[in-house]
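INTERNAL TRANSFER SHEET
From: sequence group
To: structure group
Subject: PTS galactitol transporter subunit IIB

Please process the attached sequence and return the structure record in the designated field. Keep the field labels unchanged so the import script can parse them.
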Amino acid sequence: MTNILVACGNGVATSTMVALKIKEALKKENLNVNVTQCKLMEIPSKAADYDLIVTTGRYTQEINKPIIGGMPLLTGIGEEEKLKEIVEFVKERN
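Return from structure group:
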């Protein structure tokens, strides 16, 4: 199972919205994933347990995991393409 970490400034509002959109998109593709939310500053301590990090804010620290910028999932501009990118990532891992 693919584990996705969704991070935003406070780990609550925007990450909840993005996490729900990711879960819905993957469910439509019959892909089971574990999606967890956190604060941006928690990424370094949690990243080892996840396959993909999706951020709603700017994140510049280097970690050894793929990071996808999730801002399109908040604004709606480029949302479909961003969800396709996440779906393809999960499909490649399964």
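Handover comment: The domain at 2-93 is CATH 3.40.50.2300 (Rossmann fold). The first helix runs from residue 13 to 28.
Transfer complete.
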